[in-house]
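User: Predict the structure for this protein chain, please.
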Amino acid sequence: MSAPLDPRTPEGVAHIARLSRLALAPEELSAMAAHLGKILDAVSVLERLDTQGVPAGLHDEALSEDALRADAVAPSLPVDEALRNAPARGVGGFEVPAVLAE
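Assistant: Here is the predicted structure, written as C-alpha cells:
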C-alpha cells in the first residue's frame, strides 16, 4: 500500500481533483496546493487547543430552543408549478443526468 498523498502538493491536489471529478490546469494545482496548505495549517492550530472538559456539541441552549419552529403541515406547490422551469422532467419530479458509472 502506498503512502497517502499530501494535499499540500500539486500531486496530492491532482489526486483529490480526480476523485472529485474536477479538471484543474497545472497552474491551478500549485495554487490550490498552497491554498489547502494554509487551510490545513489553520486547522492544525485548532487541533492543539485544550478542549479538556468542554462537552461535545456545546452551544447556547437558549438560542437552540427558539431557533427552530415547530413542524406544521402546509400546502405545497403543485407538481406542474414546481417543475415549470426544470430543464428536464421525469415521472413526478426533476430528471438529472447520472453521475455514477453503472
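The chain has a mean pLDDT of 84.
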